[in-house]
Amino acid sequence: GQLEVTLSQPTRTANGTPCLSGVPEEKRSLITQKSKMTMDEDPEVLVKGWLLREVQGGWLRQRRFWFVLTTDSLDYYSGPDRDARRLGTLVLTSLCSVLWPDKHTYKQTGYWSLTVYGRKHCYRLFTKHYNEAVHWACAVQKVIDSKAPVETPTQLLIRDIEENKFNPEVVEHIYDHNPILRYTQSPLYAPLLPFSYGSLHHTHMAGKGYTSIREEAVRLFNCLQQLESAREPIPLIQGILQTCLDLRPLRDELYCQLIKQTSVTNSCVQTQTQTQPNLQLRYWQLLTCMSCTFLPSSCILKYLRFHLKRVQSLSVDPEVESYASFIAQALEKTRGRECVPSWEEIQGLMGRQEILCTVHYPGPGCCQIPITSHTTANEVVKKIAERLGLQDSRNTFALFEQNACWEKAIGGSTIIADVITRFENLSAKDPDSDCQCRLCFKLYCLLDTDNISTDSIEYLFLYEQCHEMVVRGQLPACEDDLLSLAALRLQCLLGDFSALSPYPPLEQLFPAEVVEARALLAPVDPPGCPSFPGGLLAGTLWGHKRRQEQDQRLRARLREEGAVVMSAILERWKALAGYSRRDSMVAYLTIARQWSGFGCTLYEVDFYISSTGSFSQKLWLGVAASCVCLYRQGEAEALESLPIGQICSYGVSDSNTFRITAGDRDLLFETSKLTEIMQLMNAYFSATRRQLGKDDCISMETNPKLHPSLLELPSHPV
Questions:
Q1: Range with lowest mean pLDDT among 206-215, 314-323, 555-564, 595-604
Q2: PH domain: from which residue to which, for each copy (predicted)?
Q3: 287 contacts 327 by C-beta, under 8 angstroms
Q4: Which helix (H) or strand (E) is 125 found in, with range?
Q5: N or C: which terminus of the chain carries fewer CB neighbours within 10 A?
């Protein structure tokens, strides 16, 4: 039933003291006039003292007030006297926050500042003394930490639903009598979940235009409502997901908002029109994208799963039920994503469809593989290997990120949808760039190169990857062999020589470094070149002009040497008449195999230190199945060679230093390819153990204090 209750609100006079008019005389002694109580008389006072507060007026200035911190609030007065007027109060709850003193503000203002954020007010306080600022900040934070956590109505209702989830009548009663749980067209004025008061201006997110978590949560709901009428929802969905990627606490909030906007009561289902589910369809599409991008916390995850089951049991609409089923399955596979889904992925998720991923092979070949938001690089490699009949190969394969300038192996557990999004973002930043990124399926660990059939596609992969190394200058060979390799490449691509054949440019056949070395052997300054005249200004002008002339001569020499090299290649190409494509590939690899390091992957290192000596020049670190070798760039003989069986440990000893220990020998390398070297060595050791049936495991040395990002390296590819 109902009970009539009369409430009276105490009023205050101008100086902040309670107005006791209308209160019986015998009760007035029970009302404590706290504002007139001195500090020594009030046991709740924790800290007191003079502080400067930033006051917003006609000018931004600081004024001096007497601050008092109690167990419930931070008050400030006109002074410390008994009759001082209280000028303001900031009630402290668990949602309040404190911004601690920082040197940046001190350098700008000469004061140490602390900022206390409340629900309605924000006190920015200043003091000359650092210790005093820290003392106040610690005391305020201690009061905040002592408060019981604030719970919003949504949280309380979620708990009620969880407690009564096996009683459908009670659950439906909760939904019927609490509009905050159901779809609304009205705006949201406060978050559904509790967030600390405070600004993001002092964080690294300030540069992205974010204000506070609470304001962003309300703004998020406004964006959701715009989805109902948006002609093209994908940019809006990407923006919402990007906000949740940047501001992690908003992920649970967005899930709660989407559950709210996709919830209906049983009575509404029975009386709804045909158009009502369509209003909520965009929310279901966004919820689908969320379920494939971020996982909520355990409490919200339980609430979400209950919501999906309830929607399916209510039989709202066949389309809605399909989305609910798809989301429930996606939640079982989703883990944290590095990027917001791409345009193509969101389009696929809105229709609950897979997307096609284009993967290139060494050479001109490519294929399309259907993937989902959860497909990893290992799964794609396995699909392609089965499609090409390579699943029984002793060698292993991997996916690579590749463009015209570089390539990098992709870790086996990497989600391919994230890689595609990264490509889309790079393309959007520089749409006119010639170096567009792509995915490439290539040989990774070369465990057996001698027993590959010359008629297999694996042999073609080996040939193409070997040619890539030759063109990059990573196959040490004499110039005569390099000319023969270039001629064999032309024979393989174009067949017998023809004067009308449009052959590729020299840089696709022959190492550019060799041509440059030939051009530099000739003197840049011809004999009899006059010396520059005396005088500082004259010498500077003459020196600049002379450098321009030298550059012009060098470019001319490069063109001349390139023409000479190309002419020599064409002559050798003519001599290969009758060679088939297969014969050319076999002859090409026969020459390449003359190098003892054939089959290894080379990484550039800047210096090398061992017990036998040190080198400060650029070197090559070669990682292969049988050994790890070190080469001078361009030289075929190894400076050091460590058989795999002698390596005791390897790992990271500094932020950019790689270390290998073999017996009593330690080798240190400085390189920017730490992750890639570790990943490949892990793959070789794992593949070797699998093939030899060994269970012993090599030890891995890492230093988490120096390089924590390498503690969890990507798993090796299949």
A1: 206-215
A2: 44-145
A3: yes
A4: strand 122-127
A5: N
Q: Please report the beta strands in 419-488, taking only residues with DSSP state E, as ranges in sequence order.
A: 438-445
Give burial (CB, 10 Å; 0-12/13-18/19+) of 7.
exposed
Average pLDDT, integer, range 414-423: 92
User: DSSP secondary structure string, 592-656?
Assistant: HTTSTTTT-EEEEESEEEETTEEE-S-EEEEE-SSEEEEEETT-SSEEEEEEGGG--EEEEEETT
- The string of pLDDT tens digits covering residues 583-619 is 999 999 999 999 988 989 999 888 767 655 566 678 8
The residue count for the chain: 718
- The candidate with the shortest Cα–Cα distance to 326, out of 301, 291, 360, is 291
250 contacts: CB under 8 Å, gap ≥ 6:
213, 216, 217, 220, 243, 244
SS3 of 41, please?
Answer: helix
- Which residues, including other chains, have CB under 8 Å from residue 116's CB and lie 6 or more apart? 74, 90, 96, 97, 98, 99, 122, 123, 125, 140
Average pLDDT, the chain: 83
Q: CA 385, 388, 393, 396 torsion: positive or negative?
A: negative
Query: What is residue 316's three-state secondary structure?
Result: coil
Distance CA 494, CA 14 (A): 97
Total Cβ atoms within 10 A of residue 522: 12
* 21 vs 43: CA distance, rounded Å: 28
Beta strands 657-662 and 665-670, pairing class: antiparallel
Residue located via tokens 């070149």 = 529
| Residue among 187, 119, 199 at smallest CA distance from 152 | 119
Report phi then psi at 159, rounded to 5. -65, -40
Q: Using CA atoms, how far apart are residues 65 and 63, in angstroms rounded to an integer?
A: 7
Structure confidence at residue 434 as a pLDDT band (50, 70, 90): low
pTM of the model: 0.79
- Please report how many Cα atoms fall inside a 13 Å half-sphere around the Cα of residue 403, on the Cβ side: 9
